[in-house]
Amino acid sequence: MGEVTSRAVGKLALDPALVARARELARRVGRPVVELARGHTTVSVERAVLRLAGVSGADPDGIPWVNRLVDAVVADVGLGHGVSVPVFDALAREQITDVTLLAQKAAAGSVRFSVPVGRAATAARRAARRAAAVGVRQIDRRRAERERLIKRYGDPPRRPWIYLIVATGDIYEDIPQAQAAARAGADVIAVIRSTGQSLLDYVPEGATREGFAGTYATQENFRLMRAALDESSRELGRYVRLTNYASGLCMPEMAVLAGLERLDMMLNDSMYGILFRDINPVRTFVDQRFSRQVHARAGIIINTGEDNYLTTADAVDEAHTVTVSQLLNEYFAHEAGLADWQLGLGHAFEIDPDVPESLRLELAHALLARELFPEAPLKWMPPTKHMTGDVFRGNLLDGFFNLVGTMTGQGILLVGMMTEAVVTPWLSDRDIALQNVRYVLGAAGGLREDFVPAPGGFIQRRANRVLGEAVDLLERISEQSLLSAIAEGTFGIMRRPADRGKGLDGVARHEADYYNPATEILEQPS
Amino acid sequence: MSECTERSEGGMPSQHGMTGKRIVRPYGDTTGDGMVQVSFTLPVPHDKRAEGAAVQLANKMGIDPALLVHAKPMGEGFTFFVVYGRVNHLVDLSAVRVVERDYPLLSAREVNALVKRQLRRKLSVVGACIGTDAHTVGIDAILNVKGVAGEKGLEYYRELKITNLGAQVSVPELVEAARVERADAVLVSQVVTQRDAHLHNTREMSAAFREAMPVGRRPLLVVGGPRFDESQAAELGVDRIFGRGTTPGEVASYLVHALVTNKKARVA
């Protein structure tokens, strides 16, 4: 992904002082949000810790035991102490070793929880930490396993990696489709989640065969798909990556399950849930920080969701909001321990093709992201908004999208479908789309080397202007706060006050004795 | 609601144009040549036999002669075909029947402009899943900015003020929220249909609004869900029912039609 050299200006002649200023402002804007996240917990963070500590399964109604256990603890002592100490204290008092068994007893109402003090508290902390460490070690083992498999089978032979979606709703249909897609050239398979899963405050259990426009993300579905793609990796002689979503109300738990089942990439945006799903901002930022700490540990590449801004707002007028969001996502990611190679910062080819010079504008925006984040494997998203059902024009637009992707050195290319907005992709749609990608990468894969925008020309001017607007917006946000900017509708057009939105009742400020063994392990310098 | 109209305008007159009837065929490059192009996939590996199968399918579709111009293996056991050929079907334009929406479909921009110009305030919409129904997928698809099938939800419309109460909202809560938000319209989604729960809940809801608010102050009542019969609105005491596959744009256009541009037509 390009080496860091002393190149002061690069292909776009960006002002290094302005770039530094942008990052400084992102830090200033992001810092108070991190402080807020450090002082709060959520039901999903606590459930994620319990999953690391080995609680699994669900009750006969399909409600996971982690939910039953956290609910029981919260009913007795509240959320602000964290659930780990009350849970492991109860475990010692009940003289049982299996936390899932404790959850079952708690659900039946036969266990009471309290917040121990003194030696009982110390013992409970130690036991909680031991249990959480088992889960973290499992994540470590899965990461080492990935590294071994990549060494054995190899990475894709070129960038960008080709990213394809499957979404039948039935995991057993998804598997052959994913394997066929891998055979046809996909380097990354994403299993789209069922509509509305992001608003479920629990993670469904088991293998699932029904979903709305997507397949439920469950630990068992993760396991089944990863095993199938391991088979494909062996067959194809290249490691095929698997992607799912750490977003919505269960972001931290999704991150843990992804780490435990060796998923390779996760969609994980700092503000998407707030803006597009009306999830409470505090809940989102707390959940996001924990989930990113887990992703950092698991060696998972995150994909951020900046493409979504462009589907709601004008892709020319609002181009700078993408840059602002990328800078914030970068700040939050680094703070949570993610390295640059793990930052699949998002952006998209969404300018109205009827706008004059739209391709040059796309090139300017895509190259700006490349130049600002030289070490990040940028996630390049195809046109959706201006795909109309005219599949012939759509295929041409996708070709130009692929061309911009290769000319500007994007890291991960989500394959555009000419039948976007018409049907969920057919076998033939996917084949035609991959043929399009192969043609462009084959015919122009090295064009990046020759693509040097003219000094002072249209592309350079446009990129500099977008960066300038991004800095202006960051200045405005830093004069107030990110939370009030979100409340006032600065991003997209949605106003999202910090005291509103879904999942707020699952947020609590830390008590003085709050303890989270997973955070303690994850924040420990390795 | 769905009135049928007959259309006889549009299309080219047939070469053998008869009075009152217009018969047309597809047009390739010569009037009356009947040429079409289709593409499809058959679940068979690519070989001579597969190509024969594609031609057979095309023949059965009325394409004769069928010109197989492209055949390409896809993965294991599938072949993609492109076929050109002449269809032997005729289209009788006088027999074309289309179901017309009784309100115009508007873009988000048009919706916003009409509300701003004619209502001169934001149009307030309160949405919920009522009863025990926890399936917010329908109401979220219509209301969340995220939307559905590439179309943005009502939150995306600048001139609409959306209050999404979420799942398992009781009817009294819904009525109260509608009062507080001065709702112009109430949107209710019902997915669960066991023992006709969706019908009972809808009747309970419309009765509660009738009781709580005088005619003329009552918000427009709209329900949606995959199992409703769109013609049952009057029977259930609501203004409109939307069925499976409804998009946010249709709902927004209807709201503007019923509350802004065609207010008088509304029977309170």
Folded structure, characterized:
The complex is a heterodimer of chains A (526) and B (268). With 526 residues, chain A is of the alpha/beta class. Chain A is 53% helix and 7% strand. In chain A, strand 3, helix 8 (219-236) and strand 4 (241-245) form a beta-alpha-beta unit. In chain A, helix 1 packs across helix 13 and helix 13 (319-335) packs across helix 18. The model of chain A is unreliable at 1-8 (pLDDT under 50). Chain B folds into 2 domains: 3-94, Defensin A-like (2-Layer Sandwich), CATH 3.30.30; 103-265, Rossmann fold (3-Layer(aba) Sandwich), CATH 3.40.50. Chain B is of the alpha/beta class and 268 residues long. Chain B is elongated and about 70 Å long. The model of chain B is unreliable at 1-19 (pLDDT under 50). In chain B, helix 2 (108-119) runs parallel beside helix 7.
Order of helices and strands of chain B: EEEHEEEEHEHEHEHEHEH
Q: What is the mean predicted local confidence, pLDDT of chain B?
A: 85
The share of residues in helices of chain B is: 25-40%
- State the secondary-structure class of chain B: alpha/beta
Shape of chain B: elongated
- Could you tell me the radius of gyration of chain B in angstroms? 25 Å
What does the main sheet of chain A amount to? 9 strands, parallel
Q: Indicate the low-confidence ranges of chain B by residue numbers.
A: 1-19
Pfam families (chain A): Lys-AminoMut_A (PF09043)
InterPro entries (chain A): Cbl-dep_enz_cat (IPR016176), Lys-AminoMut_A (IPR015130), Lys-AminoMut_asu_sf (IPR037086)
Domain D-Lysine 5,6-aminomutase alpha subunit (chain A): 12-520
Protein name (chain A): L-beta-lysine 5,6-aminomutase alpha subunit
